[in-house]
Each structure stands twice: as structure tokens, then as C-alpha cells.
């Protein structure tokens, strides 16, 4: 083996390399014969044919795979081109929209700038007007300060003379703001409304709580009249404040003892609280109230049930006001019902009411004055109808009573002797035993007759006349 030769090679060996890059070492054999040579040649040819067939098969598969890859790549490139074209189209559309939006925004900015300039001009004009108004208000304020200074000087001058009459002088100055030689301007409303149409404010001159309550009632009536006049005539009449409705004679006493401060320091709310404090009453003494109410009696001369109960209620509340217990019906309704029941006349009706109040169905009337009075009106109406029938059948002889207009002369009959065995029956004291009043048979008013009474129902006037005559 020579130096530098391939491994496993010699002069007798031959190295070959196949197409698959495999090294084949061939060792020469002894020279074969012709048959072996032919056989070897045939084997070589067969191996070459097999190798060539295998190589051709592999080459076809590789070509088919490569062709498929080329088609897939071409398809992907086509899709990518379509996508890029769509993206380019969308980008172009977006660019156009952006340019259009930019143009719109530019126009809007120009419009906003124009509006801003207009607002600046308007604000400048408003500022100028406001400055003018401020200047006018400043001048008016200065004038008011000067006027207040003058008024204060006049007040001080008046108060130096007399504290009591100084207030009166101050009120006089406030009522007469115009000089004597200057004509006082009058509005159309003052021309339309005469002096007699303007309601006068009440004047508080009392010192007790009852007098303060009476003043509050009068002031409420006065405020209602002013409100109705303002609403009906469309004008404006100012309500007199409470501070102006106090009698000047009692102002120093009230300011010194009730408020402990000067008249100028007392506000309208203080005067209101002062009058409202009259609603606070002392503890009830039911025994003294019952004794004072013993003289309360129902007026049986009234020929109408509702009017008779109404008069009883009016007398009841008048006595409550005199006793300073006007809150009795709200705090003690049962005691109020007892007092009203005791005042019912005649005695037959009183006994009937007391008997009916013991029933369970009429239990609610014993603790509610309003329900009791409505229920009493219905009982009174039925009782008076029955009472008039009894009087018509058995009238009481009254020789000294003058004969009424339209009444026929009655023949005097001798009285019947009572049986010795039966007790004498006391004559019934009815409401008709009193002489009839010369007035309305329905409400008792002397201003009109029963035929013109507004409270009479259709046919009721004739029925009352038939019962009367």
C-alpha cells in the first residue's frame, strides 16, 4: 500500500463512489470467465435499471411536491395581493374621510371663533350696561343714605320732646311724605276705591289674653277683607302690620313689661308671637266651669231646630270666652256634652236625650261635640214637629194673651175636675206656651216673614203657617 493512498486501498483494490455518495471499495478478484462476466454484466445492468427506476420515481414525487408548493405559494401570494389591495383601498377611503372631517372641523372652528367674537362683543356691551346700572344703584344708594340721615335727624329731634308722642310724630311724618303745598299723586286704583270701601285695621287696646284673642279674630277678618278686595278688583292693598295696630296708649307699657325693649327693636314676628301667646290658657277647673254654666238654657222661643241648637252653641261659646276656657270642647269633649245636655229645654226633650245617650249605638255622641250637635238637631226637629201637634190638639188657656192676627176668638171652657183616685198630671211645659214672636216662623228673624225666609224648603212655609194658625 502506497503512502498517501486511501484507506483500505491497494494496487489490487479500486475505490468507487456511487451517486448516493457512498464509497465502495472493490477488490479485484481473479479474472472471471466469460460466463461469469456476462452474468456480472447482467447483474450490473439490472442494478443500474433498478437504481434508475428508483431515482426516476423519487424525482417525479419531488417534482409533484414542488409543483404543489408552487401552486400554494402562488395562491398565498394572490391572497396577499388581494388583501393588500383591499387595505390600500380602505386606507384611501380613510384618507378621504379624514380630509373631509378635517374640513368640517376647520369650518366648525371658524364658526366657534365667530361666535366667540360675538360673545365677547355681547359681554363687553353687557359689562358696559352693568357698569351703568351699578353707577345708578350707587347714586340711588347715596341718595337713600342721605334720606335716612335726614329721617334719623328728624327722629332724634322728635324723641327729645317725648318718647310716647315722638312715636306718634314719627308715624305722622311717615304718613305725610309730601309737603302741604304739593299735590299728592293718586293712582287709578285709589280713584276707583272710595274711603268707605277700604277696610280699617283693628286697634288693640286691651291688656288681657281674652282681649288679645278678640283682636286676633278682628285682624283675621280684616286680612280676609283686604285679600278679597285685592283679588276682586285686581289692585294691590297692603295689609297693615301688627306693629301699626297697637294703641299708642299701651305701647310704652307693652314694650317695657312684655318685651323689655324699645319699640324699634320689636319685630313683626315678636308682635305675632305676643298675640299668639294668648292661646296659652291655665289649667281647667271643671267644677267652677260647671257652676258658671248652670245658667245656660236653651231658648225655646226660637221656632227652628237648627237655629235653636245654633243659639245654644253660641251662648255656650260666649260663656267659655268669658271664663277664658274656649278650649274646653277640644280638651274635655265629654264634659262639654254634659253641659249642653243639661241646658236642653224643655225637660221632656232633655230626658229623651239623656236616655238616648245611654244606648251603646249613641256612645260616639258623648265624646264629640260636633256629632252631638248634629244629632241633637235631628232629634229637635222631630220633637218640635210632634210638640206642635200636641199644642194644636190641647192648647193651654191664656186669657191675658192678646189675640194674634188671623186668630179666631176662642171660647173659654170650664176646667175639668180631676178624678180623686188619679194623681193630677202636671201641665206640660212646651216651647209653644210662650207668646209667639212677630217674626219668621222658621228662623225667628223679625226682618222678614216665613214666606220669604231663605231657609224654608218648598212647602215648609205653608206647613208652618198651618201649624201656627
From TrEMBL:
Keywords: Coiled coil. Residues 395-410 have a biased composition (Basic and acidic residues). Residues 89-164 form a coiled coil. Residues 393-431 are annotated as: Disordered. The keyword Coiled coil applies. This is CCHC-type domain-containing protein.
Amino acid at each position: 500500500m502506497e503512502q498517501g493512498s486511501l484507506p483500505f486501498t491497494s494496487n489490487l483494490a479500486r475505490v468507487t463512489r456511487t451517486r448516493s455518495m457512498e464509497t465502495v471499495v472493490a477488490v479485484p478478484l481473479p479474472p472471471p470467465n466469460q460466463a461469469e462476466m456476462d452474468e456480472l454484466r447482467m447483474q450490473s445492468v439490472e442494478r443500474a435499471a433498478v437504481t434508475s427506476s428508483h431515482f426516476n420515481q423519487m424525482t417525479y414525487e419531488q417534482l409533484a411536491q414542488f409543483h404543489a408548493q408552487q401552486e400554494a405559494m402562488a395562491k398565498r401570494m394572490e391572497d396577499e395581493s388581494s388583501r393588500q389591495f383591499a387595505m390600500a383601498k380602505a386606507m384611501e377611503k380613510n384618507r378621504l374621510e379624514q380630509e373631509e372631517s378635517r374640513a368640517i372641523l376647520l369650518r366648525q372652528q371658524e364658526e366657534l371663533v365667530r361666535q366667540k367674537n360675538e360673545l365677547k362683543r355681547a359681554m363687553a356691551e353687557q359689562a358696559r350696561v352693568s357698569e351703568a346700572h351699578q353707577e345708578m344703584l350707587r347714586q340711588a344708594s347715596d341718595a337713600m343714605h342721605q334720606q335716612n340721615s335726614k329721617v334719623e335727624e328728624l327722629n332724634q329731634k322728635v324723641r327729645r320732646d317725648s318718647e310716647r308722642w315722638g312715636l306718634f310724630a314719627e308715624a305722622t311724618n311717615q304718613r305725610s311724605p309730601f309737603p302741604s303745598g304739593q299735590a299728592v299723586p293718586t293712582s287709578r286704583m285709589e280713584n276707583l276705591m272710595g274711603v268707605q270701601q277700604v277696610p280699617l285695621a283693628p286697634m288693640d287696646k286691651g291688656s288681657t289674653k281674652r282681649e288679645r284673642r278678640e283682636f286676633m279674630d278682628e285682624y283675621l277678618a280684616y286680612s280676609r277683607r283686604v285679600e278679597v278686595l285685592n283679588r276682586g278688583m285686581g289692585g294691590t292693598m297692603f295689609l297693615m302690620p301688627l306693629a301699626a295696630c297697637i294703641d299708642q296708649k299701651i305701647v310704652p307699657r307693652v314694650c317695657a313689661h312684655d318685651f323689655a325693649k324699645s319699640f324699634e327693636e320689636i319685630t313683626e314676628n315678636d308682635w305675632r308671637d305676643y298675640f299668639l301667646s294668648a292661646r296659652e290658657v291655665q289649667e281647667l277647673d271643671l267644677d267652677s266651669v260647671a257652676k258658671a254654666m248652670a245658667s245656660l238654657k236653651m231658648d225655646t222661643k226660637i221656632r227652628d231646630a237648627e237655629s235653636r241648637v245654633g243659639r245654644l252653641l253660641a251662648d255656650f261659646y260666649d260663656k267659655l270666652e268669658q271664663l277664658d276656657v274656649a278650649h274646653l270642647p277640644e280638651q274635655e269633649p265629654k264634659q262639654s256634652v254634659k253641659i249642653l245636655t243639661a241646658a236642653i229645654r224643655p225637660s221632656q226633650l232633655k230626658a229623651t236625650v239623656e236616655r238616648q245617650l245611654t244606648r251603646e249605638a249613641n256612645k260616639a255622641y258623648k265624646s264629640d261635640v260636633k256629632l252631638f250637635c248634629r244629632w241633637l238637631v235631628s232629634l229637635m226637629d222631630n220633637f218640635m214637629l210632634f210638640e206642635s201637634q200636641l199644642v194644636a190638639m190641647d192648647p193651654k188657656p191664656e186669657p191675658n194673651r192678646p189675640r194674634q192676627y188671623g186668630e179666631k176668638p176662642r171660647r173659654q171652657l170650664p176646667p175639668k175636675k180631676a178624678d180623686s183616685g188619679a194623681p193630677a198630671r202636671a201641665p206640660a211645659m212646651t216651647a209653644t206656651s210662650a207668646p209667639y214672636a212677630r217674626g219668621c216662623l222658621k228662623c225667628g228673624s223679625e226682618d222678614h216673614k216665613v214666606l220669604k225666609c231663605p231657609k224654608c224648603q218648598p212647602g215648609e212655609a205653608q206647613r208652618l203657617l198651618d201649624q201656627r194658625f
